Amino acid sequence: ATKRTGVMIKLHIYGKRLELHLNEPERRALKELTTAADLIIKPSDKGGNVVLMDKEQYLEMCMEHLRDTQAYQKLTKDPSSQFLNELKSIITPALDNRIITQDEFKFILPHLMPTIATLYCLPKVHKNINKPSGRPIVSGNGSITERSSKYLEKLLHPIVLRQSLPGLLERQLNVPGGDTQG
After folding, report:
1. How distant, in Å, are the alpha carbons of 1, 55, 60, 148 from that of 38?
2. From CA 121, how far away is CA 131, in angstroms rounded?
3. What's the pLDDT tens digit per position in 83-112?
4. Distance in angstroms (rounded) separating the CA atoms of residues 151 and 80
5. What span, in angstroms and rounded, lies between the C-alpha atoms of 157 and 167?
6. Which of 88, 85, 153, 75 is CA-nearest to residue 116?
7. How far apart are CA 32 and CA 21, in angstroms?
């Protein structure tokens, strides 16, 4: 087994280009860490840290969530086709009744057979650094709901802004000791 050392890396972002200012030993260490099959590298749940975990410990952290039968259910088959049919049954009447346009219909409907949403966890090292629990995240990228979620987000964004903007402005104007009248 090789000895691994922690390397602090500062990332400098210039436009779309990402530059790593690393010396040669740091580059080798980074390459070793990112290619190690027995390590998982994830951002921490809070604090903006990068966490290196033993793969077995990470998988166990994730499995703790999946064992919760109140939140998760083991499926015997892939329900993607059924969910896709349900999505079509919801948006087809919306198209027929001119609630959505043909372009919106095409956007909402996945172009290819979608992937199953993926669960991963962000280690809560701020609570326990040696055996952190994980914050479960379900990534819907490429899933059946990705495009409909984007559509609804765009549709609801102006409404949410109208609802939250007055309260936000009021909170910003009511500074203790400040004059709210201008």
Report:
1. 11, 5, 13, 37
2. 13
3. 999 999 999 999 999 999 999 999 999 888
4. 20
5. 16
6. 75
7. 17
